[in-house]
Write a structure and sequence with these properties.
Strand order of the largest sheet: 1-2
Distance between the termini: 28 Å
Largest sheet: 2 strands, antiparallel
Order of helices and strands: HEEHHHHHHH
Number of strands: 2
Strand content: under 5%
Number of domains: 1
Radius of gyration: 23 Å
Length: 281
């Protein structure tokens, strides 16, 4: 709800800019819409392998991420070089923040590969939203965050089954200790919905809405800047200055959001795993 409120507020604040641009443009100023997240096919149109701009951005971000890790670790040694040192610091951050701090060293080591893949994968796809010529995050399309959420969902259920067993996992999840027996009539259905339905949906929606909001804000600012500088007449061109400044500020803010959302998503996943493997909630 906070992300929706932010989007509504941003659109309200920038609406006068769009109206002013439309009044001075013969062709009309067209503010961004959700249609931008459903671009036309570029390759293999009409086939199961159809690829649009967002799919290409996703493939490119994944390839670059894999390349960076390969370059950093292809000649791993006890005395790390610059590339290996950067990769080890990045992996060390994930290990410390998510694996060791939340799960403990023993269990955290088992799930570090999943948490690291999740954090760097989400971060790479988020960053594309502020890279020139790419300018959109695949995580603004619900299916991509939903796949990450499914990974989190499968992981914390698998962890519960493996570490404490299916029976104790469901007992701890649906019948938390210290609750009077009659309360379970209300509490258990709520926990069932929360753990097995709300968790993955909330993870996916939080990430999706944040990336949608960020993209729309940037397009609003830079689209208005383009119009005022290149199409507006006379002193109206000066309106391009505040919209350009706004675009730069929102770009820096979007960079922070890109890192923060990857952090929050991975942290919540680690917390869900920890709840699944604990003896009692």
């Amino acid at each position: 709800m906070q992300e929706i409120a932010l989007l509504a507020t941003a659109l309200t604040l920038l609406a006068p800019v769009a109206v002013l641009a439309e009044e001075h443009s013969e062709e009309g100023y067209h503010p961004p819409s959700l249609g931008e997240f459903f671009p036309q096919a570029i390759f293999f149109d009409g086939t199961p392998f159809e690829m649009n701009r967002i799919v290409l951005v996703k493939l490119l971000a994944t390839a670059v991420l894999l390349l960076l890790f390969w370059l950093g670790l292809r000649r791993a040694s006890l005395v790390p070089g610059r590339g290996q040192n950067i990769v080890e610091v990045a992996l060390g951050f994930v290990k410390t923040q998510f694996a060791d701090e939340v799960l403990g060293e023993k269990i955290g080591r088992r799930y570090l590969p999943v948490l690291a893949s999740m954090f760097f994968g989400i971060l790479a796809l988020n960053i594309t939203g502020i890279i020139p010529l790419l300018n959109i995050s695949p995580n603004a399309i619900f299916i991509t965050p939903f796949l990450f959420a499914i990974l989190a969902y499968v992981t914390f259920i698998y962890a519960g089954f493996k570490e404490v067993g299916p029976g104790k996992f469901f007992k701890n999840s649906l019948f938390p200790s210290g609750v009077p027996a009659p309360i379970y009539i209300i509490l258990t259905p709520i926990e069932l919905i929360n753990i097995f339905l709300v968790r993955p949906l909330s993870l996916a929606l939080r990430l999706t809405l944040n990336m949608i909001v960020g993209h729309l804000l940037l397009v609003l600012c830079f689209g208005a800047t383009h119009f005022f500088f290149l199409q507006a007449d006379g002193l109206d061109k000066l309106f391009g200055i505040p919209t350009l400044i706004g675009g730069i500020v929102f770009t820096l803010f979007e960079l922070l959001v890109a890192v923060l959302q990857a952090y929050v998503f991975t942290l919540l996943t680690a917390a869900y795993i920890e709840q699944s493997v604990s003896e009692e909630h």
